[in-house]
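A quick aside before the break. I want you to see a complete sequence-to-structure record at least once, exactly as it would be stored in a machine-readable document. Don't worry about memorizing anything.
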Amino acid sequence: MLSITFTTTAFAQENQNDNDKKKPGYILSAHLGSFLPNQIEGVTEVIPMWGASYAIPSRGGFIEFGGLAGNAHGVKYYNVFAEVRGDFPLDDLVVTAGIGADAHLYTPPATALDPAPKNKAAGGGHVSGGINAHIADNLWFKILMKFNVSPGTSMYFGFGFELRADGSDSKDDQTK
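That is the input. The structure line, written in tokens, reads:
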């Protein structure tokens, strides 16, 4: 019985104190991708888009704000969003999942019946997911997907880079 007690305590690992854990810092990202519209009035072609976002740490995840923009096939399309996002480590990768609200502004292409189309605006929601791979220091490669509902439905697939700033130590935050 003594040998079991001594061997288990000898191989036991110390629990990391919550005060020693690092809080994540902010995240800046830029990405390029394709916007696949479905049932959006006047928008029928795949649109190449670019985007950027800024995420701040919150309890249990991040609050992310961002935007997408594209101009192709006679369509100008803009999307701004806010989401709650969680990051989940998986081996050497980080899997992300989020849910949020969107605002869309787009101009459909001109037609013979409507040579000067007006801007259209709509609100909506989305779910998102992605995979991030660490490249060097604070730089990460990012693959992301965003499924939007309203107007119509749409999917954005993108890839890009994230710059993850170092967080502050919990100990430092308690002394301020």
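Two observations worth writing down. The longest helix spans residues 2-11. Strands lie at 27-38, 47-58, 61-72, 75-90, 93-107, 120-136, 139-149, 153-164. We'll return to this after the break.
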